[in-house]
Specification:
- This protein has a single domain, classed as Sandwich (Jelly Rolls), CATH 2.60.120.
- Helices cover 29% and strands 15% of the residues.
- The chain contains eleven helices and twelve strands.
- The structure holds 2-oxoglutaric acid (AKG) and fe (ii) ion.
- 2-oxoglutaric acid binds next to strand 5, strand 7, strand 11 and strand 12.
- One of its GO terms (biological process) is small molecule biosynthetic process.
- Belongs to the iron/ascorbate-dependent oxidoreductase family.
- Keywords: Iron, Metal-binding, Oxidoreductase.
- This is Related to oxidoreductase, 2OG-Fe(II) oxygenase family.
Length: 370
């Protein structure tokens, strides 16, 4: 049993999760900055560090402890980690009823092995359940059906959505300030009660045979604005940009070590488009957890915030920090709704009996092999 002191210690090297094998101490980990939510509310230098993290890596840890809203979010995340196994225990056959791919939606269930993860045409090794914010906040015009167990936990799910969304708005407010954009430029594109692709995602990846450990979730950048991620077992890896790689070395996939009391925050493609490449959405993937952790089933919990459906993903005007477009450069007019749908569905066009060649083509056409 982990004690309060184990999970509350200030030394990240000794932070562990109760009842799970520890993250190995002898493997390299990604150099994410560790920011604090409570400091972010009052300390200008913490805000500066947030801006730097969003520019150089596009990923950071956020310590949620010692902050009222942060602690509430941690509690909800804990409760959702207890709910996740119960949801997936409904079984793949039952959950398939909630796969809405045939309705051209990525919401609901994604079955095990239904997306391509690499150039060889290998299939993923995880299941998702995507819960649309709009269905649970009661603003969808046509909500999807979801398993009863989710409705039974409606209060928890909506509380988690509201807390995550409010964290996203806080981060966007800091970014607006550093980008010297008029106040609400970013937050007004992410109003909680407007229709968007925002979702909670549960992911389950079972242990893989030691002789056949593959990528569970293929390399990608997130498509939306800000992602709030909780996980307990390693497995998430990022490919650091050349600017953070020692001179003369090629960037290498590096594990992000989960830290209790923290979430991992990362930026998606919409933030890159809004800022003409000033902010970064870094490439990442999920592989087998390292060391002893590989024997465990891995769950993760994600809140994806995305711009409201009708927002056009292009450079934001009104500030003097975002780089100008190049001479004669014309941006595509793609709405957030179109962009997210296209990105989310591309690799999920795997059909029964598809040849390896066809699967490889799906990967190629997704543009992720670049
Ligand atoms: O499970 C994780 O740690 C990361 C999941 C992820 O990157 C995603 O769902 O986009
Ligand atoms: Fe991701």
């Amino acid at each position: 049993m982990a004690t309060e002191t184990q999970t509350r210690t200030e030394n990240p090297g000794t932070l562990t999760f109760a009842s799970l094998p520890p993250f190995p101490s002898d493997i390299p980990t990604a150099p994410l900055h560790r920011l604090s939510l409570s400091k972010l509310r009052s300390d200008a230098s913490e805000s500066d560090r947030l801006f730097s993290s969003c520019k150089d890596l596009g990923f950071f840890y956020l310590d949620l402890r010692l902050d009222q809203e942060g602690e509430a979010l941690l509690k909800d995340a804990d409760d959702l980690f207890n709910l996740a196994p119960q949801l997936f225990d409904l079984g793949r056959e039952e959950l398939h009823k909630y796969d809405y791919k045939s309705q051209d939606s990525y919401m609901g269930y994604k079955g095990f092995g239904s997306a391509v993860v690499d150039e060889k045409g290998n299939l993923d090794r995880n299941e998702f359940y995507n819960i649309p914010k709009d269905d649970f906040l009661g603003i969808s015009s046509k909500p999807f059906a979801h398993p009863q167990i989710l409705h039974d936990h409606d209060t928890l799910i909506t509380s988690y959505m509201r807390s995550s969304h409010s964290l996203v708005l806080l981060i966007l407010q800091h970014l607006e300030k550093h980008l010297r954009l008029p106040p609400t430029t970013l937050t007004s594109l992410h109003r909680q009660m407007q229709i968007s692709g925002d979702q909670v995602r549960f992911i389950k990846s079972p242990p893989q045979p030691p002789s056949d450990q593959r990528t569970a979730l293929g390399k990608h950048t997130d498509f939306g604005s800000i992602t709030i991620l909780f996980n307990r077992l390693g497995g998430l890896q990022i490919l650091p940009p050349p600017s953070l790689t020692p001179p003369g070395q090629a960037p290498e996939w590096t594990y992000v070590k989960p830290l209790p009391g923290h979430c991992i925050v990362n930026l998606g493609d919409a933030m890159v488009k809004f800022t003409n490449g000033l902010l970064r959405s870094n490439i990442h993937r999920v592989v087998s957890p390292p060391g002893e952790q590989a024997k465990e089933t891995r769950f993760s919990l994600v809140y994806f915030s995305r711009p409201e459906d009708e927002v056009v993903l292009k450079r934001l005007g009104g500030g003097d920090v975002i780089p100008e477009l190049g001479e004669g450069e014309v941006e595509e007019e793609c709405s957030a709704k179109e962009w997210i749908l296209m990105q989310a569905m591309r690799l999920r066009n795997v059909r029964e009996g598809m040849s390896d060649e066809e699967k490889r083509r799906l990967w190629e056409e997704s543009g992720r092999g670049k």
